[in-house]
From TrEMBL:
This is YcxB-like C-terminal domain-containing protein. The lineage of its organism: Bacteria, Bacillati, Actinomycetota, Actinomycetes, Pseudonocardiales. The keyword Transmembrane helix applies. The chain crosses the membrane at residues 27-44, 50-67. It comes from the Bacteria. Residues 90-149 form the YcxB-like C-terminal domain. Keywords: Membrane, Transmembrane, Transmembrane helix.
């Protein structure tokens, strides 16, 4: 099965945020703690108010801006050879990714896992390296074939569906 995945900056940013989510979640919690600490310092104590103000300013920055800033930095650091469409060739033994200036071919066993999301699969090589495979580029038959190959060859993190509504 061969699929051409066009270069999509939004998909790259979403993939970056997906990969960084565990670290970003910790920063979001830290931001919320800083806000609470800053408010407490400003209202409850007579300690230096500058520290409280700094906490109140840094907290929302961590919560609301750090994800976007990190994705933007990753986009700037992206290797220019990968800023192009790529061909993904998948068969029983190999996963091949070919950009115009670079290519990689590896056995299925080198994939750590495949993570399914509503509109994309992430082929995870490591915790911080993934190749997105948008579902809208595939026919239903190709999606079924890929799902079967992935299930047979790697551990698949299934799509979490919302619980059914009770009548």
């Amino acid at each position: 099965m061969t699929i051409t995945v066009p270069y999509d900056e939004r998909l790259f940013k979403r993939t970056t945020q997906f990969l960084l989510r565990p670290q970003l979640n910790r920063l979001y919690v830290l931001g919320a703690v800083l806000v609470a600490l800053g408010v407490a310092m400003l209202t409850l104590t007579t300690i230096d108010k500058v520290v409280g103000v700094v906490c109140v300013i840094l907290g929302p920055l961590l919560v609301f801006r750090i994800g976007r800033v990190t994705a933007a930095q990753a986009l700037e650091a992206q290797w220019s050879a990968t800023r192009a469409a790529f061909n993904l060739v998948i068969d029983d033994q190999w996963v091949s990714i070919a950009y115009p200036l670079a290519q990689m071919r590896c056995h299925w066993e080198t994939l750590a896992r495949v993570v399914e999301k509503p509109d994309v699969w992430y082929l995870m090589f490591t915790k911080s390296q993934a190749v997105p495979l948008p579902k809208n580029l595939m026919t239903p038959e190709q999606q079924a074939k890929f799902a079967a190959l992935a299930a047979a060859r790697t551990s698949v993190v299934p799509l979490r569906r919302a619980p059914a509504q009770r009548a």
